[in-house]
Write a structure and sequence with these properties.
The complex is a heterodimer of chains A (228) and B (392).
Chain A lengths: L5 E10 L3 E11 L4 E5 L6 H8 L7 E6 L2 E2 L5 H11 E5 L10 H6 L9 H14 L15 H13 L5 E5 L7 H15 L4 E5 L3 H5 L3 E6 L2 E7 L4
Parallel strand pairs in A: 3-8, 3-9, 6-7, 7-8
Antiparallel strand pairs in A: 1-2, 1-4, 4-5, 9-10
Chain B lengths: L5 H13 L2 H39 L3 E6 L14 H6 L4 E9 L20 E5 L3 H5 L3 E4 L11 E4 L1 H7 L7 E3 L4 E8 L11 E5 H8 L7 E6 L4 H12 L7 E4 L2 H43 L1 H10 L3 H38 L7 H28 L10
Parallel strand pairs in B: 3-8, 5-7
Antiparallel strand pairs in B: 1-9, 1-10, 2-3, 2-9, 4-7, 5-8, 6-7
Helix pairs in contact in B: 1-10, 2-8, 2-10, 2-11, 8-10, 8-11, 10-11
Classes of the chains: A alpha/beta (228), B alpha+beta (392).
The complex binds adenosine-5'-triphosphate (ATP) and magnesium ion (MG).
The site of magnesium ion (MG) has 2 residues of chain A, from helix 1.
């Protein structure tokens, strides 16, 4: 039985003005887990993802990612952890219109000390892996929504992260492309990458191994199980 | 330590600027105008100063002019015939030449021109050494030689030649009682323009043909550079022991030298004005970068999510600011050198703008860019990473 790659205990996150975005969430994710986080708008899904992705610090509770207690890490060490251990995918893709698909993907290793030529070589390989080998030199504007999200996933894969965190990755896609993205993410779990996906779409969530339902900052329902 | 390589930083900065090309160009232009003004002012003053200094070096600063002033009745006076020898005996004096106007003599193209119509030329007896003392040169023909200084030959100053309508040597002039052949015409004399309207007759011939008595209306002398002041102090006594008060000594190069210093003061003022322009340009760059740091919140958040440290973000924004300012600086330096080159060509002199002026200007703009980018970079780096996740 392997150790969980991600563990959080009793996470709470309060915002000024008395907003309690999270009110005590505990969670364990093992390598190869495919986890859906569902729940109504405002239930704290994005907040949870930000906390376990080291983009934000909790008001209370702890996050242990790849064996490191995030509360003990400096801002610089957290940056390093994001570069090496986590891959992010967002609903808005966040691709630069000034760069080709290949260069956008190459940015995934910009902060890891890998040389430009090597970054591009690996970016081309990552794009090929997602079936975009003939879109290397297109700019995001020239790509469809589904293709853009695949470019963004390719970028998230560049650092060979242990955990991929995706916030509504299918939110801007039609159902065909949404399903394609989910299948791509599922394939990633085959080699031990843990994938956590926030989604509104219960149909898509049903295709994932585990479902965690949030409401008002609390876990109200869990279904399926991790690999362990 | 940041893992960003210098080439990565440069790539990031240039891409950031390409995102808003017009904004980039306008901000860079603000810097360019200040720098161009600074470089052009330096170039133009430097060019004219070098030109003045070259003139000074060529003409020498050790020339002294001695003239008798008018007496109490306002009548012109003359220096005694002994003055040339006496002043020439002052030991630091290396060259001396006397000139004496021949009051009663006029110069005419023919004997039939009514006397009195002298075309405002001055017939003057001059020591044949005058051309060396003044470092003057002939535009046409020759100066006097030992072979012809006893004969009625004349050399014309440049203005005299024009006024008499003489454009080539060989012409004969009627000097009232005697013909004289024009053997040369002088180029304008820079430090002694009073020579230009003269019809010059060598002193020996003036004695023979016009009863010249040797009294002078002007002395030109060169002295050892370091002794110029000492020499000029003793000249009045020496030249005219009876009437030292009626001797005026001047140093014609002083006027040129004063021009060099005056240009210096103006130069400083203009450079200060240009520096204010550069400051305004820097504020423009800073403003543009602050706007960028606000607009690009989600880019910053995304970069933080990819693993960028605060230092990486600050470095990127600082590099953009420096690149923006430095591009403006390079444009401004090119413009400044171009203006200087045109100025020099228009003045007919060679442009003088050392390379270090341009390099310094570019370094200054890099400095301006880094100062202008400091606050925007700090601001961008303080941006919370969660901004990347915020829905647009
Ligand atoms: N910076 C903030 N300041 C104040 N309140 C905040 C802040 N960020 C989030 N919240 C609040 O915290 C709660 C949870 O927000 P969160 O974004 O996690 O919800 P969500 O489940 O992702 O919703 P959605 O499905 O609409 O994306 C919401 O009520 C939100 O208004
Ligand atoms: Mg959300």
């Amino acid at each position: 039985m392997s150790a969980p790659v991600l563990e959080c205990h009793d996470l709470t996150r309060h915002h000024p003005g008395g907003v309690q975005a999270l009110r005590g969430v505990s969670l364990r994710v093992w390598p190869g887990d495919f986890v859906a986080v569902v729940g109504p708008s405002g239930s704290g899904k994005s907040t949870l993802l930000q906390l376990i992705g080291a983009l934000d610090r909790p008001t209370a509770g702890e996050v242990v990612l790849a064996g490191r207690d995030l509360a003990r890490l400096s801002d610089r060490a957290l940056s390093r952890l994001r570069a090496e251990t986590i891959g992010f995918v967002f609903q808005q893709f966040h691709l630069s219109p000034l760069m080709t698909a290949c260069d956008n993907v190459a940015e995934g290793l910009l902060y890891s000390g890998v040389r430009h030529g090597e970054r591009r070589r690996r970016a081309a390989a990552a794009l090929a892996r997602l079936g975009l080998e003939d879109r290397l030199h297109h700019r995001p504007q020239a790509l469809s929504g589904g293709e853009r999200q695949r470019v963004a996933i390719a970028r998230a894969l560049m650092g060979e992260p242990a955990v991929i965190l995706a916030d509504e990755p299918t939110g801007n896609l039609d159902s065909v492309n949404g399903q394609l993205v989910v299948e791509i993410l599922r394939e990633l779990t085959a080699d031990g990458t843990a994938v956590v996906v926030v989604t509104h779409d219960h149909e898509l969530a049903a295709r994932m191994g585990r479902r965690i339902e949030l409401r008002d900052g609390l876990v109200v329902h869990e279904a399926g199980s991790g690999r362990q | 330590m940041s893992l960003l390589r210098p080439t990565d930083v440069l790539r990031l900065a240039s891409r950031g600027l390409r995102g808003h090309p017009l904004r980039f160009l306008l901000s860079a232009a603000g810097i360019a105008i200040g720098v161009a003004a600074m470089v052009a002012v330096t170039g133009i003053t430097q060019t004219s100063r070098v030109d003045l200094e070259e003139q000074l070096a060529k003409l020498g600063t050790n020339l002294l002019t001695v003239v008798p002033s008018d007496d109490m009745n306002g009548e012109p006076t003359r220096l005694p015939a002994t003055a040339v020898t006496m002043v020439g005996n002052i030991s630091p004096v290396t060259d001396i030449s006397g000139v004496g106007e021949l009051d009663s003599v006029g110069a005419y193209r023919s004997p039939y021109v009514p006397s009195g119509q002298t075309s405002s030329v001055v017939v003057t007896a001059v020591d044949p050494s005058l051309i060396n003392t003044l470092r003057a040169r002939t535009a046409q023909g020759h100066w006097f030689t030992a072979a012809n200084e006893d004969y009625p030959t004349v050399v014309l100053g440049s203005a005299a030649a024009t006024r008499l309508g003489v454009d080539a040597p060989g012409t004969r002039l009627w000097l009232g009682r005697q013909w004289a052949v024009v053997i040369g015409i002088l180029a304008p004399v820079d430090l002694a323009s009073e020579i230009d309207p003269m019809v010059m007759l060598p002193t020996p011939a003036a004695h023979t043909y016009f009863d010249y008595d040797g009294t002078t209306t002007g002395l030109y002398l060169r002295s050892i550079e370091s002794q110029v002041h000492a020499v000029s102090d003793v000249i009045p006594q020496t030249a005219s022991p009876q009437q030292p008060g009626q001797v005026a000594v001047s140093r014609p190069s002083d006027a040129l030298a004063a021009k060099v210093t005056a240009d210096n003061a103006l130069n400083r003022l203009l450079v200060a004005l240009a520096a204010i322009g550069l400051l305004v340009g820097g504020i423009g760059v800073s403003n543009t970068m602050i706007i960028a740091s606000i607009e690009r919140r989600s880019e910053i958040g995304m970069r933080r999510a990819l693993g960028a440290t605060r230092l990486d973000i600050a470095t990127q924004f600082l590099a953009e600011s420096m690149l923006m300012a430095t591009s403006g600086g390079v444009l401004g330096v090119i413009a400044g050198y171009t203006v200087t080159a045109y100025y020099a060509r228009a003045q007919g002199v060679s442009p003088a703008l050392p390379l270090w002026v341009g390099l310094t200007a570019i370094l200054i703009t890099a400095g301006v860019g880094s100062i202008a980018g400091l606050y925007p970079a700090a601001r961008a780096s303080r941006q919370a990473p969660v901004a990347a996740l915020a829905a647009l």
